[in-house]
Structure formats: structure tokens, C-alpha cells
Design brief:
Blueprint (H helix, E strand, L loop, with lengths): L8 H18 L13 H23 L3 H36 L23 H21 L1 H13 L45 H12 L30 H6 L28 E6 L7 E2 L5 E2 L6 E5 H10 L2 E3 L3
Antiparallel strand pairs: 1-4, 1-5, 2-3
């Protein structure tokens, strides 16, 4: 027997007290209570192993005396308490998992209220593995008996459709060694595992017989199309003679000899001959230069420089002579 599995007297007494205290708490509880340590069941196993070794050593040394009997009673008591505690905790876990899995909604539009989850930080690791296995078996049991169809009926079959996944899809828990959630991972439904839907057409027996009778009937010959005689409409009666007509009708009637011309549309004005009045020109010599050009009678501009000789209109030439800017220069 390895010395690592043996407990000292102080450790054995401490583990025994924790076992009895946990049993007293679990007695009237329907939910697993918190354990004092995560390796609780491992320490209980080491406690029983230590007691067993001590009893064998005492029998070998002293025989079956009173001290051996007391240790045997202690060992039996520890085994009984450990068995009852394990049974009560497993029943509580089974009840919690079943209540959580089979919990029903109060109405069609309401979801089932979830139970408070277990605190796995204050439980043994072996208990968590057992709880996960119970959830997996509960889900398998529900699928076997058709639990969802039993609870939801046709509404559940019409509204719920299981999602499909690509082949090779893995669960998130496959990448970790420790479980991620308290519940078992859902089963994956792959696309190639679902059979293709087959269109089923229900044919009535009467429709089938009617179709057979229709196929057995002989075709009816179609009569040839005869040519129809087209009758021309009768000519309209001729208008009566001019005798007896109203005077206004004669005025409104078009004339046979009159012709409509477009002379009224020709609004182009006729070119009028422009008579340019010519005035006599006077020959002058410029005495003073002008910085700017002056406008003549025909609208052109003329620069006047000293010494230049120009033939200008009478009015402009007389104005330049009177102002002293030019003088008459007759030939």
C-alpha cells in the first residue's frame, strides 16, 4: 500500500467530520448541496482505505481486542454514511436533470422556465460527468418516445425544423478536454443523412377511371370549312338636287371652282427701295489733330490729324471750320 493514499489521524478525523456534516445537509434536500472540497469522494475513499489498513495492523499486532472492534464499528459507520450520501446526491441529480429536461411550458407562447443551474465549482468532478451522462440519456429517451411531438403536437411539427450541417462539422466541445456547459451537446444532423423528399401524388380512383375512358374514346371528325359568300353593302342614296335646299346649307357647301391659297400665310415684308439722300461734300484741311475718332453721317469713324484733307458733309465741315479746327480748301 502506497503511503500517498494513507491519511494521518488528523486528516482522517477531518474528512470523517466533513462526510457526516454533508450527509446531514443532504438529508432533507432535493438538490445536491455543495461539497466542502472538489476531491471529496477521493478523500472518502482514502479515509476508508486508511481505516482498513489500521484495522489489519491492529489485528496482526494485538488481535481482535476492544480497540479493533471500535475501529470496525467506525469503518462500518463511515461506509454507511458514504453510501447514503452518494445515493441521496445521485437521486437529487437525477431529479434535477429530469425536471430540467422534461419541464413543460405553461402555454403555447410561453417558454419553460429553467431551473437554477448547479454550481460545479463546489461539486466533485465525477458527479459532473455523471450529470452530463444523465442529460445525454434523457435526450435520447425523449427522441425515442417522441417527447416533442407529444407536448407540441402538430404545431411543433410544423414550426420546428431541425437545422442541418455540412458533413464534417464538429462540436465546440471536441476542441476542449473539459466540458464547456452544464448540458450535453446537441446532436448534429448532417445534410447527407436526411433522405430527399419524395413527391407523393394521391390519385383518386374515379379520376383514374375517367382518364382511361377519355383515352378510349374515338376522335370526332371535324367538318370541312365552307366558303361563305360575301355580300357587298348597298350603295348610299344620292343627295337630293339643289331644289328645296336651305340657303345656309348652300353657303356652307364648298365651291367647285374656288381654290384655297396660302397667300395669307406669307407674312414676309416686301423689300422697299431705300433712297439714300446725298448731301453736297465740302473739301477741308485739318488744322488741329484730334485724339479720338469722330463719327461721320454714314456711321463710320474718322481720325483727324493736322494737315489731312477730307471731303465731309456740309454740316460737319462747317462745324469744324467754325471751331477753328479746319479751314476750307477748295480746289
Amino acid at each position: 500500500m502506497s503511503s500517498d493514499t494513507m491519511l494521518t489521524d488528523l486528516q482522517a478525523r477531518e474528512i470523517q467530520e466533513q462526510l457526516f456534516a454533508t450527509y446531514r445537509q443532504q438529508t432533507n434536500r432535493h438538490v445536491p448541496v455543495h461539497l466542502p472540497r472538489k476531491d471529496f469522494w477521493e478523500m472518502v475513499k482514502r479515509l476508508l482505505t486508511t481505516l482498513d489498513v489500521q484495522i489489519h495492523n491492529m489485528i496482526r499486532k494485538h488481535g481482535a481486542d476492544l480497540r479493533v472492534q471500535n475501529e470496525q464499528k467506525r469503518q462500518a459507520n463511515v461506509r454507511h454514511i458514504a453510501s447514503e450520501l452518494a445515493r441521496r446526491r445521485l437521486v437529487a441529480m437525477m431529479q434535477h436533470a429530469a425536471s430540467q429536461s422534461l419541464r413543460m411550458a405553461t402555454s403555447a407562447t410561453d417558454n419553460a422556465t429553467a431551473l437554477p443551474p448547479l454550481d460545479w465549482q463546489k461539486t466533485d468532478g465525477a458527479e459532473r460527468q455523471l450529470y452530463t451522462a444523465i442529460q445525454t440519456e434523457m435526450d435520447r429517451f425523449k427522441k425515442t418516445i417522441g417527447w416533442q411531438e407529444m407536448q407540441d403536437g402538430l404545431r411543433g411539427e410544423m414550426e420546428f425544423s431541425a437545422p442541418t450541417h455540412k458533413p464534417g462539422t464538429m462540436q465546440l466541445g471536441d476542441f476542449t478536454e473539459k466540458p464547456i456547459t452544464n448540458q450535453a451537446p446537441p446532436d448534429l444532423i448532417f445534410e447527407d443523412e436526411r433522405p430527399e423528399p419524395v413527391d407523393t401524388i394521391d390519385i383518386d380512383e374515379e379520376d383514374r377511371i375517367a382518364a382511361l375512358e377519355w383515352d378510349s374514346m374515338e376522335p370526332v371528325p371535324i367538318p370541312e370549312h365552307t366558303e361563305e359568300v360575301v355580300t357587298l353593302p348597298e350603295p348610299l342614296p344620292q343627295a337630293p338636287s339643289s331644289e328645296g335646299r336651305h340657303g345656309a346649307a348652300m353657303e356652307l357647301a364648298p365651291s367647285a371652282t374656288s381654290a384655297i391659297t396660302d397667300d395669307w400665310m406669307d407674312d414676309t415684308p416686301k423689300e422697299e427701295e431705300k433712297q439714300v439722300e446725298t448731301s453736297p461734300l465740302i473739301r477741308i484741311r485739318i488744322l488741329t489733330s484730334f485724339d479720338e475718332a469722330i463719327a461721320t453721317a454714314d456711321g463710320s469713324e474718322l481720325m483727324l490729324q493736322a494737315g489731312d484733307v477730307h471731303n465731309l458733309e456740309t454740316g460737319m465741315a462747317q462745324w469744324l471750320i467754325d471751331s477753328g479746327a479746319a479751314e476750307a480748301a477748295p480746289l
